[in-house]
Amino acid sequence: MRVATFGAHVLDVLAQPVDKIPGGQGAALVQNIRMSAAGPAGGTAITLAKLGVEVFTVGAIGADDPGDLLTTMLNRHGVNTDHLVTVEAPTSMSMLPIRSNGDRPALHLPGANLAYPLGDAPLELFTGVDHLHIGAPELLNPPELAPLLADVRAAGTTISADILADGDPGLLAWIDPVLAQLDYLLPNDDQVRGFTGEGDLVVACRRLIDRGVACVAVTAGADGAHVVTADDAEHAPARAVTVVDTSGCGDSFSAGFIAARGHDHGLREAAEIGCAVAGIVATGLGSDHGDFTWSSVAG
Quick one: pLDDT at residue 43? Predict the structure, then answer.
């Protein structure tokens, strides 16, 4: 399977555990500090590569040390970064003080992710892979992105998308042009409820399907995931794990789901595999945590 991920790439700096920020110029000792390549395009690309997928990633970085490090980390996992472009903005970064229960408040610099030149998007690559995953379409000017995706889909490439920003009706209106071009939307439950104002998760997903999405596979934390189409709704349970850090769990779910669909698994089975991968990632620090293969998660 050949997949392109397109969109947000982020260099995460994580410290754990951080349950309280020291006041003034105080200091606190932590057990771990590390960096990881992340974001709904970058993090998903790494997990896909671990699952044996041939991955090309597309997006923007800055002409700076974080951009060089992010590229090196992606390459180390076997991700092709030839289509990362350098722009006049800093590489996107996040500082993540991870709490003892795995929660992850964030300080985020959008940076280069807001400056990708959409007119330079590699259409030949997108139409030459089996699947295109859009990481944060809200950052890629959806009215301009939608016609590009229509051309990609017309060529036979399936398309999924994940959302980086919090869900609200205004954001839903902004990304609306893209929705009809998606085979799969892969948000979390808070985003779906925020978009629609619906309390019932399946009903909320159906509101998005009414806007043209073919399938919504929504993650719901410890409740696992729900896969909803116009005709059906199925539930995939989460794996019971000891959570260290939830960074990248949504991205790893996306990767597992996409890889499983590439192996011709049904929607519920694909969500189960996505939950299994996310469960592994949650047991360590960073969105790139875990040594696993396709066989180990799907065998």
Answer: 97
